[in-house]
Specification:
Blueprint (H helix, E strand, L loop, with lengths): L61 H13 L2 H7 L7 E6 L9 E6 L8 E6 L4 E2 H5 L1 H8 L6 H14 L7 H10 L15 H4 L6 H18 L1 H7 L1 H6 L5 H4 L2 H12 L2 E3 L9 E3 L8 E3 L6 E4 L2 E5 L11 E3 L5 H8 L10 E7 L7 H10 L5 E7 L3 H16 L3 H9 L9 H20 L5 H8 L6 H29 L16 E2 L1
Parallel strand pairs: 7-10
Antiparallel strand pairs: 1-2, 3-9, 4-6, 5-6, 8-9, 11-12, 11-13
Helix pairs in contact: 5-12, 15-17, 15-19, 17-19, 18-19
Length: 508
């Protein structure tokens, strides 16, 4: 979508519990002292110490009052934007109290008046939008992006970390301060699981999402190791911060938190140059709420990024935008929330032909002829579980063919593999039903236990959002199991034993 987050395969390590609430805020008090004798020593490598000041971390009570006074003095985000070219708009910033009383409320964008579908809620000029074009300069973008070493998110995070070191001297100070307030928290005031502790990640036990989080964490770690190389390549960054070598200026945990904070608000614009495709829009996410069934998107138009509404709003209603066709697993990893009404939610079933099968190559050819791969991912979408089960059957039947003459018949025929024998069909359906039962048994709780957990108003917010995710996954898997069992019950002869399958396809 225009507002869609790009799920990157990059990620971070096991997060530290002590740092999960400081995405960008720990960077304000970082300073560097360069001796006059070294001002021209371009190749001098010099270690900058990063540390968190207590004044950087928002806490309850007095600290929140202090922040409010600072905002009164320097103006809030919207006031700063108006001073710097934002035309009159139809939205206001409002507060949303979070589950953690030690953290300040998060802001959200609401309608300032009654609005209709088709109204332009706001139009942010490009001068107030952060893009790679601004960060890296035209002359280095193509070279940087072809290295395949650093994602757009990492580049934007690195830029904001450098800008944050400038404190109030930075033009982007009000916007960075707003990101600090949000602290990478999603609509449920929950951070991405990329910032959860190991104990908190166990809330996702049984879900493939847990593995995805760990893989993305490793990806972010790899990106961190490439920061210095890209910094040298990016002339604009190198010239502006010649002594601030990234991995010396910023510890990995700081980069990880900044990366996740940027991930929670980057906008993917359509029909723009590569250098402007990924953008940070001060009135965009996370101030805007994501909704899977919404059609409104942030779009590039006439030197600005604007939001055209897809529905009417009453004054004070929170404004929502589309988050792209993303399953709940990606919504949780990218933004820290799960959408119960997500029409794009799905689970994946990976099936593979057995490479030990003497007829593997022939089966591989038949699979490709029918648009499938030797290792095939089947997306099981919510509400379409039965269709997905029917789609898997021809592929699984192919794996069960063992007689060479039978295989020749399959090769000479066109189209998907139809049922060949009662015993083979029973074996295929038994394997499929057993697979869904195994996946369901991998979760430590049942659907009924999930419902009981969610009924507890005092449930930890991270556990709540994780429970919502696994509950929705289990519903999809349970529906698939039910479909497989019904097909077994429809078999004409239940006395037939399943065919032996020395080279049955693999499911995971």
């Amino acid at each position: 979508m225009d507002v869609a987050y790009m799920p990157h395969s990059n990620s971070l390590p096991n997060p530290l519990r002590s740092s999960t609430h400081r995405p960008l805020s720990v960077l304000y008090k970082i300073s560097i002292s360069v001796p006059k004798t070294l001002k021209n020593a371009g190749s001098f490598r010099f270690r900058n110490l990063c540390y968190a000041s207590s004044s950087d971390t928002l806490v309850a009570g007095k600290s929140h009052e202090v922040l409010s006074k600072k905002e009164d003095e320097s103006g809030d985000l919207k006031s700063w934007m108006h001073k710097n070219g934002l035309p009159p708009c139809k939205v206001v910033l409002k507060d949303k109290i979070t589950h953690n009383v030690k953290l300040s409320p998060i802001h959200y964008i609401a309608a300032s008046e009654d609005l209709q579908a088709g109204d332009i809620a706001f139009s942010v000029p490009n001068s107030l939008v952060v893009t790679l074009e601004r960060v890296l300069g035209n002359e280095t973008i193509a070279e940087l992006l072809t290295t395949n070493k650093l994602s757009e998110l990492a580049c934007l995070a690195l830029y904001l970390m450098y800008e944050k070191k400038q404190g109030k001297k930075s033009f982007w100070y009000p916007y960075i301060r707003e990101l600090d307030r949000q602290r990478g928290r999603g609509q449920l005031a929950v951070e991405s699981p990329l910032l959860w502790s190991e104990t908190e990640l166990n809330y996702l036990t049984g879900s493939p999402t847990k593995v995805q989080v760990l893989e993305r964490a490793e990806g972010i770690k790899r990106e961190y190791s490439e920061l210095d190389t890209v910094w040298f390549m990016a002339g604009s960054l190198f010239q502006q911060y010649p002594y601030d070598i990234p991995t010396e200026a910023f510890p990995f945990e700081i980069f990880k938190q900044a990366f996740v904070a940027v991930q929670s608000c980057v906008v993917h614009l359509q029909k723009v140059s590569l250098a402007r495709r990924f953008a940070l829009v001060p009135l965009g996410p996370p101030l805007l709420s994501y909704r899977s069934n919404c059609k409104a998107m942030l779009t590039a138009a006439d030197g600005a990024v604007q939001l055209v509404l897809d529905r009417p709003y009453k004054a004070g209603d929170p404004i929502v935008v589309w988050c792209g066709p993303q399953p709940n697993s990606k919504l949780l990893i990218n933004y820290g929330f799960v959408d119960e009404d997500n029409p794009y939610d799905r689970v994946v079933v990976e099936a593979a032909l057995n490479t030990d099968d003497p007829q593997y190559q022939e089966k591989r050819m038949v699979a490709q002829r029918n648009g499938k791969l030797s290792i095939q991912n089947f997306n099981v979408s919510v509400g379409k579980e039965r269709n997905a089960v029917y789609d898997m059957l021809p592929y699984l039947r192919l794996g069960y063919v063992s007689d060479p003459s039978e295989m020749q018949s399959v090769i000479s025929s066109q189209g998907p593999i139809c049922p060949v024998s009662p015993c083979m069909e029973r074996a295929v359906l038994d394997q499929l039903a057993a697979y869904f039962r195994t996946r369901l048994s991998g979760y430590p709780t049942t659907l009924n236990e999930d419902e009981s957990l969610l009924a507890d108003s005092n449930l930890d917010p991270k556990k709540r959002v994780a429970t919502r995710l696994v509950r929705l996954e289990k519903k999809i898997l349970s529906t698939c199991l039910q479909a497989a069992v019904e097909l077994i019950n429809q078999l004409p002869d239940h006395s037939v034993s399943p065919c032996p399958a020395p080279y049955a396809p693999l499911l995971k």
